[in-house]
Amino acid sequence: MAHVEAVPTLEEYKANIQHGTTITRSLDKIGENVTNENRHYVKTIAEIILLCARHEIALRGHDETRESLNPGNFRSLLTFIGNHDQIVGKRIKEDPQNAKYTSPEIQNELLGVMGDMVLQTISNEVQRRYLLVARR
Description:
The chain is an all-alpha fold.
């Protein structure tokens, strides 16, 4: 690298350090954005599953292939939301099939986790009330 090229590079480096924009900080910010997008996407999937469960709506359809005209309620709702939510839309269009968290196994696992959370909440409430009664 010639001296003429090195001086502007050094000045840019100094400015980045002064403003706190280092490579590490930039990478941390990118990682934070990816994490937030992943959380948003998985939360959306969980909310769709919860909505269907609360209203006793079947998640899966008879034919869930990409070409299907009726891919099931879960996939239809996810596509609908993806048309209005940039993060979800990007994930369902661009992610590989095995990274979309849409398989029946994942749906069942999320239902199980949410069921466990409900049971834990009920258990905690019962224990709290029992302690209140026992202290009286």
